[in-house]
Fold CID domain-containing protein.
Amino acid sequence: MNRTSLLARLAKLNSSQDSIEDAASYCLFYRRQAPLVADIWNEHFNASATNRHITLLYLANHVLQNSRKKGPEFINAFWKHIPAAIARAYGDAPTDASDKTRDRITRLVRTWDERKLFGTGPAMTALRATCGLNNQDAGASTNKPAEAKAAPASKENDAENVDVSAYSVDTTTAALRPSLQKAAETSSKAKLVLEKIREYTNATGGVAAALKEGRVTTEFWAEAIGNGKSMCREAAANLREAADALGEAAARARAHADTFDLAHAEVETADAVVLGAKRKRSEEKDETAAAAVAAAPPAQQQLEEEDSDAEYEPE
């Protein structure tokens, strides 16, 4: 709770219904800090002018009446300051008949007494005495017991009609102390759980950011992989076309090779025929020359032999 904010609201407080309800709603929101709220209210009460005391008491009354069914926090917290505040406000109020401040304070105390807001112990008796209330006028619980039993209470008002005259604030506080202690322990455990939840929330936020970043990265790579697949399919199609072209070229090469082999065989055959013809012609020529030599006269043979024995003379 912000102390400065509450003091500012108390400084702006006036006696209108809206102003009091607005300030009371702010105080009721901080029920777990009821002692601090009551202390700040008392500090402002003591520092305020006399004519503002009744307005501040109206605010305290609104907080007390609207919080009593939810727990005793505000009742216990304000009770530490109410007797002194009532005594001061009643004692400082003007005594002339035209001023209604004392009547309003008396009416507040009578209401608290009738509703057993602070119990019926000696402290409440002293508070009644502060305002000049006597036993006849103290409240329905002391002077009207038969009237309290005359009409059966409805179920929804049972909580308000329970007789708590045997309990004082101190007794009620002592009885509630174990429950309050357990509530405080539960509150501490709840705080630890909230801290854990906060830690997990922060961690989850980091994980969520990482997941988001990972999702963006995954989408990027998915797009890249998709583009790669398209390029691979296009390359595969090109490879198939190239393979088909190579197949056709290989078929043509094989056809040319077969043609070349056939031509080579034909050339070799032709070479063999030509060589055979040359050999045959040479043989025929040799045979013809041998026959001519054999048929020539001996003189001619001798002349030829002499010619063959002559030395070479250069010309």
Summary: The first helix runs from residue 3 to 12. The radius of gyration is 64 Å. Confidence is low (pLDDT under 50) at residues 138-172.
